[in-house]
Amino acid sequence: MEPIFSFDTTGDKDMHASEAPQTLQWMDDSATGYLRMIDQTLLPTELRWLDCRDVRTVWEAIRTLRVRGAPAIGIAAAYGVCLGLQPLTLTDPERFLDELDRVIEYLAGSRPTAVNLFWALQRMRLVGAEVAATTESAEWLPALLAEARKIHEEDRAMCRAIGRFGASLLADGVSVLTHCNAGGLATAEYGTALAVFFSAQDQGRRVHVFVDETRPLLQGARLTAWELMQREIPCTLICDSMAGQVMSEGRIQAVITGADRIAANGDTANKIGTYSLAVLAQAHGIPFYVAAPTSTFDLSIDSGDQIPIEQRAAEEITEGFGRLTAPAGVQVYNPAFDVTPARYIHTIITEQGLISPVDAGRIREVIGSGQRDAGL
Length: 376
Ligand code: MRU
Description:
376 residues; alpha/beta; Four Helix Bundle (Hemerythrin (Met), subunit A); 2 domains; seven-stranded mixed beta sheet; four-stranded antiparallel beta sheet; 11 helices; binds 5-S-methyl-1-O-phosphono-5-thio-D-ribulose
């Protein structure tokens, strides 16, 4: 792991959309290059890049949330496949496919919930199989890199489209609540839930965003508030437990979150705390929107019951930021995601259009043909 350069971001408000730092970048155009990523664990106090020159560094970065957010995890893993094969000189197609599988299985073990990871790895596998059967060995690694770049570029375009579709749902002057971070940091750029705000802003509409701090790792406080402030979108940080009170005071007209995996019936896994927000939103008559690209849908599972929920270390709750905040040895339960049943979701905003009502039929209608099997 090699930290590159960094600077203090405290009080830095002069960055505009066009200058937003790239979450992920493949350095050097050739297949011998490497992956540069923002180390998100250091934000908001420090913006520092990490250079990944081997697959182990990518695996560790995904596992420890240096890179996080469903689409960004998928993109990083795709580049990770290239790094995993880079040191090997492979000329035999069978051996190449064995090694490809080994690297893919390794990366697939980094985190379990975001389906974008498995979707991207499956794309890499399909391309690997195709080139192994049809081209010379010198073409294999460049072809994999080309696919990783394609996944990266497609995500960029999907986020822009999500922003445009989502912005149509927001009236001028609206106040919206979001949870976790579904912004540029979590994607190629621009984000999913945050893309809706960015796009509304680009269209000249005023939006105010309430930001849940998002316990235990504070992706809302550390990352979403940072991104919104960089773009000069008015925002107010609240503790997760304040959402009900803020809704009851009439301060919120919509809730928009991202997603990590959406089942065929619309049940949606997202950062822990999302489900509670959806229930609260329904109790207050506030529409609850999910913004996600088609790469986040898993049509191979019927409902949210089949979504694996990541369990994370107790220390994230008891001493998340270096200070013990609970008695040593206390028993802890730390699921990193929850599943919001489709009945609480008003609309899913995708790059292919709006899904409403949220049910299996409408999902198939809007994205059915655009989604590939994520099964590994
Ligand atoms: O644990 P994280 O930070 O990877 O969780 C991220 C989320 O839950 C996001 O809301 C989701 O991945 C969508 S990102 C566009």
